[in-house]
Amino acid sequence: MTGAQSAESTRTLSKIDKTRFCVAFFVFSFAWMLALQIVAAVLLPQRLADIAPDSKDAIFGVLNSATALASLISNLVVGNMSDRTRSIFGRRTPWIASGGIVAGISLFLIGILPDGVSIGVSYCISMVGLNMMIAPVIASLSDRVPEDMRGTMSAFISAGTLFGSALGQIVGAQFITLQLPGFIVAGAAMALSGVLAVIFWPKEKSSKDMPKEKVDFKGIIMSFRPPTKGARDFWLAFAGRSLLLFSYYMILNYQLYILQDYIGQSVEDSAVTISTMSLVLMVVSLISALSAGPISDKIGRRKIPVVAASVLLAIGYALPWLMHNALGMILFSAIGGFGYGMYGSVDQALNVDVLPNEEEALGILNIATTLGQMVGPIVTSAIVVATGSYAMVFPTAIVMVALACVFILMIKKVK
């Protein structure tokens, strides 16, 4: 972290700036997740079911593999390029605003492209645009927000993400039989997410006078080196975060197929159930996300919410597995969603707290989010292709969230 950024992150925020950061983090997270879930959770899987009903699971798995790789690379590249950006608009703002436009246009194109290959290419470009926003936004949490406010800001990020996820599924379900308007809404919301973020938050200071770092290919590659010295807690957080997100997105991204192929619902019935699940998720996740973060800041503890969240998530995963009906999936949204909101409310704060070197390690740690959201569905696809059923997905998710809890509890730097 440079001297200018260090000074900015240690100064006391005014009430207006606190409010603007809270609104910006919430609106950004809400808008991009709303857009992504309209497509990823509902419209894309249904589109694949329409054009390739016999191979939809395998194709969905391939798409998630490709987007995981695109996200992984773009998150690292953008994070490092953002650190080196010198402009009157600052280091982060140009990437965030432009990334939304790239992601929005390519997300919309998924709805009009005719085959799996072209859909996959457009989906990957959209993930590049998304990471052009996410990497700088999370970096801003480290270099623009004081440490004692990070739990609260993390809570607003989590609340926006969860609210956007729930509402995105509701919106997507309304377009399940008439998909093109849904893709238009998704593209517009994604494009607006970055623009609104930089409008709402306090104007970023110019970075033109910051010491210039030579931008060369070798330097960028070397900056990708993961931290090793004093990085025990960093890697524990990385593993815990990855595994917890693996477990959640194993089920969340495949919920439409679970309802149709595991529970046995029709397309129309599954849309109704998803809408119900999303309403439940929206309520419980907002309550847990907006309460656990500030409480964590007040008591100075990060691990307590993580343990509680892990237990609730494991219960949420078990219910549809044992009950094998739509009610089990609704309870997954209620109990698992509350747990995920609780975890998400302290997630970013915990991860920033364990960074051995914020400039070098934050981008690497952000990869855990990308891996969790993208690789979780790949694991589900592999299980379904190998077993022909979703039955083993749920116990696998339970094991993953239990391991995530163990790794996070082993962290020594935070309480």
Keywords:
415 residues, mainly alpha, globular
What would a concise description of this structure say?
This protein has 415 residues and is mainly α. Helix content is 80%, strand content 0%.
Characterize the structure shown.
The protein is mainly alpha-helical. Helices cover 80% and strands 0% of the residues. It has 15 helices and no strands. The relative contact order is 0.16.
Strand share of the residues? under 5%
Give helix % range: over 70%
Enumerate how many helices there are, as a single number: 15
What summary fits the major beta sheet? none
Provide the fold topology:
Elements: H1 3-10, H2 15-51, H3 56-84, H4 93-109, H5 116-144, H6 150-174, H7 180-200, H8 217-223, H9 232-252, H10 255-263, H11 267-299, H12 303-323, H13 326-353, H14 358-387, H15 393-409
Helix pairs in contact: 2-6, 2-7, 3-5, 3-14, 4-5, 4-7, 5-14, 6-11, 6-13, 9-13, 9-14, 9-15, 10-11, 11-13, 12-13, 12-15
